Structures are given as structure tokens and as C-alpha cells.
Amino acid sequence: MSSDAKKRYDVDLATTLPGTPGGKFMRQFWIAVHDSDDLPVGRAKPIRIMGEDFTIFRTQSGAAQVMAQRCPHRGAPMHLGWVEGEELRCVYHGWKFDCSGRCTEQPAEEPGYNEKVSIKTYPTGEHMGLVFAYFGEGEPPHFPPFPEPEGEGVIEMRPSTEAPCNYLQCYENSMDEVHVAFTHAPGGSHAKIAQDLPIITAEETDWGMMRYGRRKTGEVRHTLHYAPNAVRVFVPPFFGMDGVGGWPELILIFTPVDDHNCRWFATSKVHVSGAEAEKYWTKRREMESRAGEFRPVMDVVNDIWSGKLVYEDVRHPQLARVQDIAVQAGQGRIADRENEFLGRSDAGIVAWRRILLRELRAIANGQPQKKWATPPADVKPVMGA
Ligand code: FES
Ligand SMILES: [Fe+2]
């Protein structure tokens, strides 16, 4: 028997590189690529998504657009160039492109040559403070990819963070409610749900997976996992924000940067309005003004990994994130799924892997895939704690 025959997974679950089954799977969906508020008008930037490089910019009218990384003329990086109105001009020889990819100007060329040239652009949209792009073939699916939580409230963004590991172990962690009682015990932010451990069950839906965490009290927490990489869940108030707004409804998205890095995008609906909302923003601004007092998340994580800091003693405004990255990226750049002992508490992870494996195998074998639906607005998370 070859060593391959002993493998638990016959397709690579973790890769999303172009051309791989995982890469084709992911490219059927809208992918979160950037924080909206970090992309000012007139600015172009480089981004790396699923192992490929792109340019992102915001036009003068305020539209976000994802474009190929390099200029088709002689390959200069497009993000070095200038946004002019609704177009982006290459800094090397001034060729200019619009959002549909048409070349509209070539200052040193014969008129008409521009019609022979185009740059690839990707469908781009914004929802709940995040920029999404579609990298697949043909028409993109419905936009927005998931509904905004209903009811009065404010959309609150948390700046995205890069984690030095594959996206799938982070997405899997979002299905692992039991880790909360241990990983997030230091600092006490999650103390309320750490009291008794839930029994996890999960079921596939036409838009992803619904997961339930039943506690001894009989209360059941419902969490939504939107295919292919997003979770929608009630979470305890963010650091320093307790006492106002209750538990926010968080949507956390794990976007592959490449196979060894991912970016966590977080947007939330905080159910506050009127005077309560004012109070919320005041408190939030106070927290922001203190941000400089704290070290970057990855610096703290690196000190935890090297033993310089004791995990239990660490305090930080983004403590939950420090703790999550320390354990999840601590599993290695790509978690070793061939050597694990999955247990009852991993029921959510097992259920998602079964779905992913089925879809990736279908792609690898050229068989029909599931037709994913857009999640409906009336399926919501339940706090259950
Ligand atoms: S490389 Fe872009 S205009 Fe020449
Ligand atoms: Fe966590």
C-alpha cells in the first residue's frame, strides 16, 4: 500500500490556488477583499487573494474596482499609477484603463491601437463596509452575498487582520464553539458562555451550514456558516464596549491571501439606535484613541509563541483575536488534517469537511456541483446564552 492510499483526504482541502479543485470551488463565490474605509477615493493599492495579485482602487465617483495587477503594455504594477475620474492610468507610459478593462488612452501610440488592448477587471461590490470581488467564470452570483442583519442598529467595522496560516483552519475554528471556554478564558471576555460546554450539531443548508450549540440549560445557540468562508454569530461585546449595545451580531470572513496566509474581515451590526447609538460611538472613539497604547496583534502572538509572554497573562484590546491567532496559526501554516483525533465537539468541523470534500471531489472528477443559494434574510443567529 502506498502512503497515499492511507491518506484520509484524497483532495487538498486547504488549497485555493488557481486551477485546483479548492481554487475553483472558492471562485464560485463573492470574496471579501478589502475594508471599505481603508480605500480612499483616488487611491490604488496592491492586494493578494487566493495566491494571485491584483490592483484595487476607488474611482472619483466612489466606486471600488478590482483590476489585474500588471499593465498589459509592459507589465508595470498598476497600483503605482493614478486614478483619473473613473479610470486608472499606468505610471510607466501612461496607458489608461476604465473599470470595464477598456484601454482608453495611449499617449505615445497611434490612434486606434488602444482598441486592441484591454486589462482584466473583476466584478466588484460593497456591502456592510467590505469590498467584495468575483474571480470566477461567467456571471457572478447574487449581490450582496449575504443579507444585512435586520432591525435597527449601526454597522460597525473592525479593521481586517492578516493571520499567518491557511484560511480553512480559521473557518473550522468558527465551527468550534467549545474552544471559547478555554482559548478565551484568560481575560474573561467570553466568561458568560464558558460556564457549560455545548453539544454541537450541524446541518447543511442550500447556502452553507447551520450549527447548533445546545447547553445544559436547554438553551441552543444558532450560528450561520455562509459558504465558502463566512460565519454569522452573536458574540460578547468587543473589548471596552460592554454596557452599551448588548451582544453584536458579527460576520467574520476568512479570505485566503495564499495557501499560507489569510485575512480576517469583520463587520457587525450592533443593535443600538438614537441616544444609545451616540453613547456607543463615544465609547468606541475612546477605545480608538487608546489604540496606540497597545502592540500590534502579531507582535504579541509571536511573543506568546516564543515563550516570551505567558498566554494566560496577556491583555490587549483585541485579546480574542490575539488568542485565536495564537492557537489557530499555532497549528502550523496548514493544519495537519491527516493526524488528528476528531471528537464529538468537532461535529461542526466534520460536517463542513464532508461538504467541502464532496464538492472538491466533484470538481476534481468533472461531476456536477451543488448550486449554492443566497442566504435568506429570515435565517438568523440565536444567542442561546
Ligand atoms: S507598462 Fe503600463 S503603460 Fe507601459
Ligand atoms: Fe475564538
- Report the bound ligands by name, code or SMILES: FE2/S2 (inorganic) cluster, fe (ii) ion
Looking at CATH, which topology of the largest domain would you report? Naphthalene 1,2-dioxygenase Alpha Subunit, Chain A, domain 1
- Relative helix content: 10-25%
Secondary-structure element string: HEEEEEEEEEEEEHHEEEEEEHHHH
What class do helices, strands and sheet pairing give?
A: alpha+beta
Uncertain spans: none
What's the mean pLDDT score?
A: 93
Q: Which range does the strand content fall in?
A: 25-35%
**CATH class group of the largest domain:** Alpha Beta
Rg from C-alpha positions? 22 Å
Number of domains: 2
- The spatial strand order of the largest sheet comes to 12-18-17-16-15-14-13
Task: Tally the helices.
Answer: 7
* Major sheet: 7 strands, antiparallel
Task: Based on the model shown, name its key terms.
385 residues; alpha+beta; Rieske Iron-sulfur Protein; Naphthalene 1,2-dioxygenase Alpha Subunit, Chain A, domain 1; 2 domains; 7-stranded antiparallel β-sheet; 4-stranded antiparallel β-sheet; 27% strand; binds FE2/S2 (inorganic) cluster; binds fe (ii) ion
